Amino acid sequence: MSEVLVVVDHVDGAIRKPTLELLALAKRLGEPSAVLFGGSDVASAATEKLKAFGAEKIYVIDDAEIKGYLVAPKAEALQQLVEKTSPAAVLFVSGYEGKEVAARLAIKIGSGLITDAVDVEDGGVTTQSVFAGNFTVKAKVTHGTPLITVKPNSTSPVEEAGAGAVEEFAVTISDSAKKAQIVASQPRQASGRPELTEAAIVVSGGRGTGGDFTPIEGLADALGAAVGASRAAVDSGWMPHTFQVGQTGKTVSPQLYVANGISGAIQHRAGMQTSKTIVAVNKDEEAPIFELVDFGVVGDLHAVLPAATEQINQR
Ligand code: FAD
Predict the structure, then answer these.
(1) Which of 67, 130, 215, 257 could form a disulfide with 63 if both were Cys (CB 3.0 to 4.6 A apart)?
(2) Could you read off the pLDDT of 4-40 as tens digits, one per residue?
């Protein structure tokens, strides 16, 4: 069976959930092999988890030559690995970096690329949800090694151990790939809340908050949830874009999504409509979000949320 390369997304060796989802999808196409950029410190933290979620092989690429630069060296390293292993496909997490590395690799190896897939079937047929979920496109790469970026939360990770054989893969990075260097980077602000795309519960706020996210954050903390926002809230400068849920933000698929002061525009739905249970609080009983919900509260979020938070905190 051919191997399928999964490019690992991690923070200092902590594997992010979307990578585990990719391992589950890779099993449909062949034998999953993880590709991990990082030194020995990172590798030791990461390999057990990759193995536990199905990696048969783990290629560790020492990032001493790669760290500190933008994405070009990674694409060059992957080109060398693809040329050596001739995989059935290469899967990336759909994100700024994943998509750029995949695009550069596609040009280098002359392969077809599919971005933002939400499913990958046996045989390499992908599903994309486009125009805010109005159309579903089935597509397949017809030339070269299929390169596919997959949106987080497209499937669930499967804890089924693989062989997890670690192999160090030496790469040679050219000077031309090192033309753009990172000169400063700001650490992510630790909020103590789960990552938006990985959270089991998401509590979101929209224009109806009037810019005051205190009730949203209060309920989120009572439930151990991540905070999300509509584009209206982001465009108003109330929350950073990293919090935006929707067509031009993040796609979430938690067990519980609580939409507060959000009307339910199609572009917002595109990012949350696959949530398992949807609750909305909106003062307008005609708001379109109520067409989608399992449980709706017609009321002012500034009254409903503090009352709900208080009840939850008392338990
Ligand atoms: P509104 O539509 O203004 O709704 C506010 C709601 O709050 C209303 O239903 C109102 O009844 C309710 N409300 C007001 N006060 C209260 C209160 N005190 N208590 C309870 N309820 C209250 N949007 C996204 O969210 N994500 C995207 O990724 C996204 N991408 C887009 C991409 C494109 C190309 C375009 C054209 C648009 C996109 N949008 C996106 C914008 C989208 O069309 C909507 O404009 C946006 O989602 C509206 O945000 P909202 O629901 O917070 O605001």
Answers:
(1) 67
(2) 999 999 988 999 999 999 999 999 999 999 999 998 8
Residue 295 CA from chain centroid, whole number? 27
Q: What percent of the chain has pLDDT over 90?
A: 80
Could you tell me the pLDDT band of residue 152, with boundaries at 50, 70 and 90? confident
Q: Which residues contact 184 (CB under 8 A, 6 or more apart)?
A: none
Residue 190: the pLDDT is: 67
C-alpha of residue 106 to centroid of ligand 1, in Å: 37
Q: Output the CA 153–ligand 1 centroid distance in Å.
A: 22
Tens of pLDDT along 242-287? 999 999 999 888 899 999 999 999 999 999 998 999 999 999 999 9
Is residue 304 within 6 Å of ligand 1 at its C-beta?
no
Point out the ligand 1 atom lying closest to the alpha carbon of residue 289: 9
Instruction: Judge whether 267 is annotated as a binding position.
Output: yes
Closest CA to 11 of 115, 75, 93, 103: 93
